[in-house]
Amino acid sequence: FSSAFLKQMGLRKKYISLFKQAKTFKVKVSTMDAEMEFSCEVKWKGKDLFDLVCRTIGLRETWFFGLRYTVKDTYAWLKPDKRVLDQEVPKDSLITFHFLAKFFPEKVEDELVQEITQHLFFLQVKKQILDEEIFCSPEASVLLASYAVQAKYGDYDPNFHKPGFLAQDELLPKRVLMQYQMTPDMWEEKITAWYAEHRNITRDEAEMEYLKIAQDLEMYGVSYFSITQNKRDTELLLGVDAQGLHIYSPNNKLSPNKSFPWSGIRNISYSEKEFTIKPLDKKKEVFKFYSSQLRVNKLILQLCIGNHDLFMRRRKVDSIEVQQMKAQAKEEKARKKVERQILAREKQMREEAERAKEEMEHRLFQLQDEARMANEALLRSEETADLLAEKAQIAEEEAKLLAHKAAEAEHERQRLEVTALKTKEEKRLMEQKMREAEQLAVKLVEQSERRLKEADHLKQDLNEAKDAERRAKQKLLEITKSTYPVIPPPSTGPESPDRTVDMASSIRMDFKDSDMKRLSMEIERERLEYMEKSKHLQDQLKELKSEIESLKLEEQHQAGLYSLRSYTEPPYIPHSNVRNTQGEINHFMLLNISYNVFY
Fold it and tell me: Which domain of life is it from (predicted)?
C-alpha cells in the first residue's frame, strides 16, 4: 500500500476511535422537503440509520430509497449491512446524508403505493427536471408545471389566483425559458391555461399524473457514468435504470447506442477498473469497459444488483407485505374517494348556499337601494311640495303686491293725466308769455336800435354844435376885438397881455357848460329809462327761467315714476312739446345774452 493510503487509513481509524470514545455521533438527514437530525450510536449499521429515517417519515416502501453521501468528486450510497462509521462517510462533527430515491419503478401507478412515496418521487423528479438532469421538451415542461401548480394550489380560482401568483415559483427549466423569447407573464398564462383544466384533481392525483408523464422521458431514472470501452480511451456513457444497462455517446444521453436488458444479462462483474457484462446468449460478445475509479465500479455494481433484484421482484407475485400495503392503500383510496365525494357534495351545497346567500344579499342590497331611492324621492317630493307651497304663497303675495301697485299706478296715472292737463294749460300760458316776451324783446331791440340811431344823431349834432360853437366863438372873438378896443386899466405898472384872452375863454366856457349840461341831462334821462325797462325785462326773463326749470324737474320726476312702474303704461309726453320747450329755453337764453350785450 502507498503511504498516502496508509495515512488516510490512519486518520480514518483515528476518527473511528474518537467516535467510539464518544459512543454517539450526530447525523443530519435531508429529504426533498425536510431536514432531520439524529443522535446515533457508534455501533449502528447503515440499516439502523435508514430504518430510523423511514420510521420517522412513515415510509414503508423502503426498497426504492437510500442514504446518499458525497465522497470527493463523486457520491456513494450508505451500505445497510456495514457500520456507518466504517464506511467512507465524511467524518465531520455533523455527518450529512441525503434521503433520495435510489431505484425507480417501471410503472409508477402500479408500484408506488404510499402517498409519501409518490410525494418523495414527485419532488425528486421535479427537481431533476428543473436542474436539467432530465431532458424535457417545452410542451411537456408546461404540462408538468400545470400539474405541479395543481398539486400545490389546488383547484384554479380566478378570484383568488390573480395574475402574478406564480411569480415566485420555479416551474420551468432555464433552458426552456431561454429557448423562447417570452416574458414570465406569458409563461404564466400558458401554464394557467392548462392548470384551469385540472379541476377536481387532488394533490396525490396531480403528483401521480406528473410522474406518469415524467416516466416516459428518455432520461427518467437513469444514472449516468463516464466510461471508456478500450485502452484507447474511447469515451462513452453508461446508463443504469430499471430496464437494464445502456451505452450512450457522450453528447447524446437520449438515444442509447447499445442496450443490455436485465432479462438478457447472465453475469456482471468487475476487476479493479475493468467492468464486464456477459449476455445470457453465449453467442453474443462479452462487453467490457473501464471506469476511472474503483469506487465508480463498486457504485455501478451496487446499482445493477438493486435494479436487477427489483426487476425480478416485479415479475413475481407480490409478497404478503406488499399485498397488505396495496390492500390498505386501495381501502385508503376508496375511503378518500368517498370523503372527497362527500366533501365535493358539501362543497357544492356550500357553494350553492353561498350563491343563494350572495343572491339574497344582492337582492337585499337592491331592495335597500330601492328603499333608499324611494325615501330620497319621497324627501325630494316633500321638499318640492314645500317649495311649491312657499312659491305659491310668495306668488300670491306678489300678486297682491302687484295689484296694489297697479292700483297705485292707476291712481298715479290719473294724477299724471290731471297734472299733464295742468301742465298743458301752464305750457299754453307760458307759450303766450314767451310770445309776449319775444314781442317785447323785438320791440326793445327795435327801440334800442332806434335809440342807437338817435344817439348817433345826437353825437353828430353834438359834434356839429361843437363845431358851430367853435366857429361862433371864433367870430365872437373877432367881433369883440373889432368893436371893443382894449382899454388899459389904471395902474402903476404895465398891463398884462393875456387879459383879453381870459375874457374870451370865460365867454366860451359859459356857452359850453350850458349846452353840455342840457345834453347830459337828456342822456341821463334816457339811460335811466333804459335801465328801468331792462330791469323789468330781466325780471321777466328770470321768472320764465324759474318756471321752465320747475317744469323740467316735474317732467323728470314723472319720467322716473313711470320707469319704476314698468308693468303699467308709461306716461305719454309728446316729443314735439319737449322739443318746443327746449327750443323756447334756448331762445330765452339767446335773448338774455343779447340783452346782456346791449347793457
Answer: Eukaryota
Q: Please tell me the distance from the alpha carbon of residue 129 to that of residue 137, in angstroms, as a whole number.
A: 10
Over residues 329-359, the pLDDT tens digits come to 888 888 888 888 888 888 889 889 988 998 9
Q: Is the same domain home to 312 and 415?
A: no
Cβ within 8 Å of residue 447, ≥6 positions away = none
Annotated binding site: 79-82, 298
CA distances from residue 212 to 109, 207, 217, 529, 595 in whole angstroms, order as listed: 7, 9, 10, 151, 137
Q: Cell 428518455 sits at which residue?
A: 218
| Parent domain of 304 | 223-316
Which burial class, exposed, middle or buried, applies to 329 when counting CB atoms under 10 A from its CB (0-12, 13-18, 19+)? middle
Residue 168 lies inside a defined structural domain of this protein: no
With cut-offs at 50, 70 and 90, classify the pLDDT of residue 215. Answer: very high
End-to-end CA distance of the chain: 167
Residue 275: inside a domain: yes
Same-domain pairing of 333 and 450: yes
Question: Residue 25: inside a domain, yes or no?
Answer: yes
Produce one character per residue of 70-99: b if its CB has 16 or more CB atoms within 10 Å, e if not.
eeeeeebbbbeeeebbeeebeeeeebbbbb
pLDDT at 439: 84
Cα–Cα dist 191/210, whole Å: 14
Same domain for 357 and 276 = no
The sheet that has 74-77: what strands, in order across it? Answer: 35-41, 24-30, 94-101, 65-71, 74-77
Question: Is 334 in the same domain as 300?
Answer: no
Cell of 139: 410542451
Task: Give the position of cell 320764465.
Answer: 544
C-alpha distances (whole Å) from 70 to each of 13, 108, 319, 465 are 19, 28, 34, 170
CA distance 206 to 126: 13
- Dihedral of CA 244/245/249/250: which sign? positive
Q: Report if pTM > 0.85.
A: no
HEC readout, 146-179: HHHHHHHHCCCCCCCCCCCCCCCCCCCCHHHHHH
- Where is 366: in which H helix or E strand? helix 320-483
Amino acid (one-letter) located at 200 = N
For residue 328, give the C-alpha cell: 390498505
